[in-house]
Amino acid sequence: MPLTNPWLAGPAPHNTLPREQLEERILHLLSTQNVAVIATVNPDGSPAATPVRYFSLGMEVFYTSWNASPKSRNLARDPRVSVGIVAPLVGQARSRGAQLFGTARTVERDHADADAYWEAVRWQADHVERGRSLAAPPTDPLTVITPDRIVYTEHWLRRSGFAPRQTWRA
């Protein structure tokens, strides 16, 4: 039987991608996707995974939030967070995604850092869709996730002799 991707057969390489190239691939993934699953810890210790639409600046991802939401309450109590981002899977050769591990913080709209993050949020489209005035920007807080470790997976890396799973550390 012919193999469409013979480089996928056999053991995976173990070579580490140079940091600059790894960062470029992670940034590409973060900027070309917009849905993440945010995993927090409930008060009873059980996990809570919530899909959100996210935005990114550098290695940080962030999303609009309400302080009363379960995920925001969980993060206020325990800021440790895991984030899963995956590109649409077409086949093993295109398997690509990232797990971000780090901490989350709430940035209220009046916080000194808020404007820098809000500039990356495409809130105008949401306002138009919901019939809100573009003259009244949102006042919601943002949840900003700063990773200390990212596990990046891309099986296409095998083609160039690199391990399909790479780890980035802050």
Q: What is the CA-CA span between the terminal residues? A: 44 Å
Question: Averaging pLDDT over every residue, what do you get?
Answer: 94
Major pleated sheet: 8 strands, antiparallel
Q: Looking at the structure, what is the overall shape?
A: elongated
Strand content: 25-35%
Q: Work out the helix count.
A: 4
- Helix and strand content put the structural class at alpha+beta
What is the percent of helical residues? 10-25%
Give the SSE order as H and E letters: HEEEEHEEHHEE
Radius of gyration, in angstroms, nearest whole number: 18 Å
Q: Uncertain spans, ≥5 residues at pLDDT below 50?
A: none
Q: What's the count of strands? A: 8
Task: Report what the structure shows.
By secondary structure, this protein is α+β, with helices and mostly antiparallel strands. The chain is built from four helices and eight strands; from the N terminus they run αββββαββααββ. Strands 1, 2, 3, 4, 5, 6, 7 and 8 form an eight-stranded antiparallel sheet that branches. A hairpin with a 5-residue loop joins strand 1 and strand 2. The protein is elongated and about 60 Å long. The termini are far apart.
Features:
alpha+beta; eight-stranded antiparallel beta sheet
Task: Quickly describe the structure.
With 170 residues, the protein is α+β, with helices and mostly antiparallel strands.
